[in-house]
Amino acid sequence: MNKLLQILFFLIFCAGTANATKIKGHVYDKQTGEAIVGATVILENPKRVTNTGLDGTFEFKGVSTGSAKISVSYITYKTITKTFTVEKEDNEHLKFYMESDSKSLDDVTIKSNVVSSTDQGARRLEKNATQIMNIVSGRAIEISPDLTVANVMQRISGVSIERNSNGDGQYAILRGMDKRYNYTLVNGVKIPSPDNKYRYVPLDLFPSDLLDRLEVYKTLTPNLEGDAIGGGINMVMKNAPGKFQVNANISSGYSRLFIDRKFASFNSSDIQYKSPYELNGKSYNANQNNFTKGTLDYKYKNPAPNLIGSLSLSQRFLDNKLGVVLAGSYQNTYRGSNSTFYNTAVNGTDAYSVITSKSYREFSEQQQRTGLHGKIDYVFNKNHQLSLYNVYVNLKNEQLRDAVTTTYNGVYNPTAGNAELVYNTRSRLTEQQIYNSTLHGDHKFFDEKFKVQWSAVYSSAKNDVPENTSISLNGIQQNFQSRRLSLVNTNPVTHRWERNTDEDLAGYLDLTYRFTFGENKLDVMAGGLYRDKQRSSFFNNYNLGPSAADANKIYGVDYKNYTDLNLIVSNPTGAVANSLTYDASEKITAGYGMFKYISAKLELTGGARIEHTIQGYNLLFPAGETFPNGQQVYTDVLPSLTAKYFLSEKSQLHASYYKALNRPGFYEIVPGKVVNEEFQERGNPNLKRALADNFDLRYELFPGASEQLLVGAFYKRIKDPIEYTFQADATRGQDIYYTPGNFGTANNYGAEVDYIKYFSKIGVKANYTYTHSRITTPKTSRVINPATGDIQAVSVEQERTLYGQSEHIANVSLLFKDTKKGWDVQVAGAYTGPRINTVSQFLNNDLWQEGFIQMDASAEKRFKGGISVFVKANNILNTPTKLFIKGTNPENSKINEQLVKDGQTLVRSDYYGQNYLIGFRYKFN
């Protein structure tokens, strides 16, 4: 009986299988033809639900033959239904074309940022863009491991990043061109930099969750500002969609670094933001009571968990005429690094440095990052729109650096046993902020043939470092036991104030008239820009030393806290009378003429831009400088031509030529002197702008939803490139200083490959960039004078790569997306090849950064009701930053710390630890 039942069940199963089959399909956007990822697909009778994969496909297995009905729905699209007959085999591959459900107002479409911030939208913008560009969508940013714009940048082809002292990305290097050669935009408008020296914007100021998308321009057209030899970075902020939206998240985590050691901090709450000079007048004599004790009041503890959150609200009112979006982000994180630094000096005529001392440094940093964004737009009708947006970002960084330097009778020789020590602790509060307000208008006339766009802009940037305090003590190491002793010199304590502000007023105007010749179109464009930039810079410092009674007191014996010391101010009126206290200005007037021709097979854009620059400075306290004030005036004509040839609906060739410039920063042309870290820096009033011819060619294929294959090559010829080098001081013998200069002509060329491919739920993003550059700069070589037998310095020319340029850069990200179950997982690896970190004065002595791989990961699980849980992990491999010198001095091989390997000498290593976050996200609509 049991066997009969088994046979009967088997026959029924076979009959059912014989009448069951498989259904496959694809869901597309009707307007663009691109696949839609994550659409909900419902099969009726019996009801079964699935979602389209990363390539827009779906599949139902085991479907009974006969009549069937499928409906497809997706946010911002109209639901569609199709009825068909299921055959036993060879069922037709179903195709669904969805239409947008965007709300309209008098034929003016209110586009949803849900669509524009997707990967599909990003690929569409890349395909249609006039200039060559790469785009990271808002959704890709959201699910990535990255919290700041700087870290997002490292995922883009041809881009590497420079990291700050806690391991976070800070500056972007585009195609091997140092950060000085690119500019930063917010919604297409250039913003000033809070940096105290340079024009480039520190990208770690910007929380990534304020962005709708991130665009990187690799070529320029005449309607774009011309000072971007490397390229431009455009942050497009969140927009107001056609319906009410809420997006909120909160997360917390920890840095692995502070599980292994304590977090060091100081009391910054009572810091004086103005120096005694500013508070009491120029004749005031400061004493110890005028300075905060909190900057010398150190605490060592376990930090609180990191806290990160953001909230954005958006809605349209007045029958969709008025759109409002408000977004805010707050990040309070504790980061740091452990650094070992080997100081070197050139020994005799040997080309390679000998290690003279070892410094161990511990950085502890609390970063409070705030970002606010608000936009109001009003649509009068299909021809006239106005918008007002405001962006404010602020980064407060409280940093304590604790360092000890070890020497053995002037050299580093750990086998000697006893050592001389110098302890140096620095407490520093840095606050940087940027504010931008833009009123923008779009107008159309004569049946939309004539377009007028204008913008009125106010921007400001500020960098404030109040009461930067450092203290030095000497010490000894006996029998490998170290202790701190008395204050090391006559002025071991310094209090320094640094502050600079930029204020920009700018106006933009763009005019476009369209001619139509059958199916061909010709846009003729003209416009201009005027910007008035005003900068002020303030620098002051006070030096303090112990009284006669306290000069020989021993730390830990005679006193336990630095705040117990009695100190005397050696320069009671301060040092404000220096060349770093100055005012500066820059006035830029620009105009352009441009055309854009569009046919079925060709798009051609060309024209020229003219920029007139008046840049000047005025030292407020000149002290014998040759140029106490100065001005540079120049005019540049910047032609460009861009061509796109359409090979098919999904592939095209993209070629471009453009001329660009790079202006010196104010700090670079002001003849100032300041000691930063281990060396003195000086400005160069004779520094000239750099000019470059840029050529690009790229094959672009967009085969499907969010997919692409980009293969390109580029070449840049830079006249008078600006590089920093060490120079010998002709008036002070062996003294050297770090200064910018122009060095002939540099060449930079390379190739890029950018590939994105999806296989249902699995995706791969990969890119690789090869860059080769050459520049020739003067170096110092030490030789023996045959006549006297003395060692003398001679100048020689040495060819090298551009500062900051890596020959090889690569990124690989593996993605898993299951829309039905609500999973998004990403594992990302970024490789940056060796590059010059510091240009040395001496021949063959440049400081190189070792190539490294950084691994990050993230995962998100979505639940019903718009709630999701996510985790992010950064620097999983605890990848250090290592610096080395090519070549080695035989003396360094004797050090038992394995510093010499493969013909290279390790001189620095920084470890940052892993960082982890877990959080919740809520989305409505």
UniProtKB/TrEMBL annotation:
This is TonB-dependent receptor domain-containing protein. Its main location: membrane. Keywords: Cell outer membrane, Membrane, Receptor, Signal, TonB box, Transmembrane, Transmembrane beta strand, Transport. Pfam families: CarbopepD_reg_2, Plug, TonB_dep_Rec_b-barrel. It is a multi-pass membrane protein. InterPro entries: Beta-barrel_TonB, Beta-barrel_TonB_sf, CarboxyPept-like_regulatory, Plug_dom, Plug_dom_sf, TonB-dep_rcpt-like. It is found in: Cell outer membrane. It comes from the Bacteria. Residues 453-876 form the TonB-dependent receptor-like beta-barrel domain. Residues 127-231 form the TonB-dependent receptor plug domain. Residues 1-20 form the signal peptide. Belongs to the TonB-dependent receptor family.
